[in-house]
Amino acid sequence: MNPDRQAMIDGSKSPRKDRDRDITAPRYDSSNRIAKSSRQLPPRNNPAAAVGRYLTQDQQSEQFIADEDKFVLKQAKKKADIRVREQRAQPVDYLAFGLRFIDPDRDSFDDDEDDIEIQIPAPEAVVESLNEAQLKELEEDVRSYHTLEHNARNKEYWTALLALCSDRRQKLKPQGPEGRAVTSVASDVDRILSPKTLEQLEGLEKQIKAKLQSNEPIDTDYWEALLKSLLVYKAKAKLKKVCAVIKEARVEMLKARDPERAMALEASDGFSDRVPELLPGAPKAVAKPAPSTTVGVSSSSAPPPGTARFASAGNEDFSQATKALYDREVARGVGEGEEIFAAEEAVPGIQKPLWADKHRPRKPRYFNRVLMGYEWNKYNQTHYDHDNPPPKVVQGYRFNVFYPDLIDKTKAPTFKIIREHGRRKGESFAPAGKEDTCLIRFIAGPPYEDIAFRIVDREWDYSAKKERGFKSSFDKGILQLHFQFKKVYYRK
């Protein structure tokens, strides 16, 4: 008989343990395998959680600017590498190229196996080899790297170079009586400071500052001049520290390829004392598409008088016809919503043209603009308004490439779109929130080389609307390619 029934007949208590359970509680079912999760879910409509998920407008603007700075810095480093490999580098290119071996932000896909074979001049030797005009230009380039750089060690490297550039410029200037007085004891200062380490220099700096702040009767001019010199030697010590890390990284890379050369590099300073001969520095053009100095070119190949600012590369076109076309385009200025565009890239698979033996190859000049504006998509319409607009995005390009001296004027220059990694038109390999890019290559006949630029890969608007329609023409030596991207409209 059922124990519960027998207990009821006998008038005794049921032997079941769950007899006294809460009748409102759910009944236990041994066949049910579903168990309630013990994880506590966050309450809905929690303002604190929403703040963590969404960025404010200021934070979005800061993030956009930071991403843009990273892109500009990456492109500058990539261009410096290309110019060094092609032996047409600026002084700043050698400084950036040496830093690439320890730069954690470098893209490994940009590396070349022969980079380890390139002789890099010592940074201090590069600064010491320049004249005042070249130093001024180098200082501007170094300051640009210093502004864009966020890595602490890299920033310290550029800070030290700024100090050396400033000191070198001061030494090249004519000195008055006070300067000559300081120079007379320069040998003593060098003898005192040069053998000291960075830690010793920092300790001496504290002592000198304490002496200057004290009430002791001291020669203030001498101690201030000594402190100024100490800061320069401190920058040199920091630079040597970074250069030692660069040398160590190069030795490790070379050990796998050539152990003997790795041992020789380890025994040396790691840098070459010879600095390639540079042409005298020239003022930068309005739109600087290429380096402003040339390496390995004799002074006899200097541009004609009055055109130095247009000769930014040894093989660049600086003819009088090109100069006139360039000046005319520059005079048009940059309109509202436009920015100067000079994101030049290396032409993939470039080979020496067949006509190179008959005509001297030269790179065409250009003055390009990129169109920037606001994109009022569904997200931006929700989160922004005209008083608080979203970040600007690329909306199109205006290319103006000058070919005034074409040998065969019956064949107009043309352009070609190149998509890397096998990507086809309409396909996208970019992550969410990003846009694909492609190369646009401009092709012409002798005596002009091909050039390429990296642009955003979106569908073009081929309409003929005034001022913003598609334009592709070649007239009076100017190839003009103007286009904007198709706008995507959202229904309300």
From TrEMBL:
Spell out the Basic and acidic residues composition-biased ranges: 13-24
Q: Where is the Splicing factor Cactin C-terminal domain?
A: 355-492
A GO cellular component annotation in the UniProt record: cytoplasm
The Polar residues compositionally biased stretches are 29-40
Concerning InterPro entries, the annotation shows:
Cactin_C, Cactin_central
Give the residue ranges for region: Disordered.
1-49, 282-314
- Domain spans labelled Splicing factor cactin central: 56-242
Q: Where is the composition biased (Low complexity)?
A: 282-301
Q: Which domain of life is it from?
A: Eukaryota
Biological process according to GO: mRNA cis splicing, via spliceosome
Q: Which family is it part of?
A: Belongs to the CACTIN family.
PANTHER family referenced in this protein's UniProt entry, alphabetically: POLYGLUTAMINE BINDING PROTEIN 1/MARVEL MEMBRANE-ASSOCIATING DOMAIN CONTAINING 3, SPLICING FACTOR CACTIN
Name of the protein described by the UniProt record: Splicing factor Cactin
What species is given as this protein's source?
A: Chaetomium fimeti
